[in-house]
TrEMBL record:
Pathway(s) annotated for this protein in UniProt: Carbohydrate acid metabolism; 2-dehydro-3-deoxy-D-gluconate degradation; D-glyceraldehyde 3-phosphate and pyruvate from 2-dehydro-3-deoxy-D-gluconate: step 2/2
Superkingdom, taxonomy of origin: Bacteria
Protein name from the UniProt record: 2-dehydro-3-deoxy-phosphogluconate aldolase
Organism: Inquilinus ginsengisoli
SUPFAM superfamilies documented for this protein: Aldolase (SSF51569)
């Protein structure tokens, strides 16, 4: 699967920082059921690799690793079963390590976008989106970088996801709001499914 094929599966990628392995399967099921099968598990907890391995077993889930900062992170998450990787940025080492693997690196400035484009990337994470100018920055970047598409994350919420997705150069959005720490700790999977459903409806313009 290419990164384009992966992001075409859902309008929103939940960004998941999961503290316990026990949460992995019910969380992935809850999100798949809510219509969001593409899941980014950040490598920010001790159990992240185990969480990826567990979630990868859930039917319908397309599980990737986030916060991939080094070739070692990429290698470890691939071994755990991640089928794509996401990084807040891009280094030459990471680009080499990610060759032939579905990868969504981050870039926000024109020079970073040009460097990533030279390496063959057509879709980039735009993080932290709200801090780097949000929708007006993305609209401005569409001028010189007409062919590039972005996945804004960082400050994307129910209240603004629709306007982000309405931009022609926004392919998909990501965010942590879909699965909060407290719901994960409480095992409130139904609330997570409901929020995912609502987000999909908003993305489709079916709900405000
Ligand atoms: C990420 O890693 O993409 C961000 O933590 C997401 O930011 P958010 O918490 O504002 O959604």
């Amino acid at each position: 699967m290419t990164i384009d094929a992966i992001i075409a599966r859902a309008p929103i990628i939940p960004v998941l920082t999961v503290e316990t392995v026990e949460a992995a399967i019910p969380l992935a099921r809850a999100l798949v059921e809510g219509g969001l099968p593409v899941l980014e598990v950040t490598l920010r907890t001790k159990v992240a690799l185990e969480v990826i391995a567990a979630m990868a077993q859930v039917p319908g889930a397309v599980v990737g690793a986030g916060t991939v900062l080094s070739p070692a992170d990429l290698e470890a998450s691939r071994k755990a079963g991640a089928v794509f990787g996401v990084s807040p940025g891009l280094t030459p080492e990471l680009a080499r390590a990610a060759e032939g693997y579905p990868f969504l690196p981050g870039a926000v400035t024109p020079s970073e976008i040009m460097a990533a484009r030279d390496l063959g990337y057509g879709v980039l994470k735009f993080f932290p989106a709200e801090i780097y100018g949000g929708q007006s920055a993305l609209a401005a970047l569409a001028g010189p970088f007409g062919g590039m598409r972005f996945c804004p994350t960082g400050g994307v919420r129910e209240s603004n996801l629709r306007t982000y997705l309405a931009l022609p150069n926004v392919a998909v959005v990501g965010g942590t709001w879909l699965a909060g720490k407290s719901e994960m700790a409480a095992g409130d999977w139904a609330a997570i499914t409901a929020r995912a459903r609502r987000a999909v409806a908003i993305a489709r313009g079916e709900e405000e």
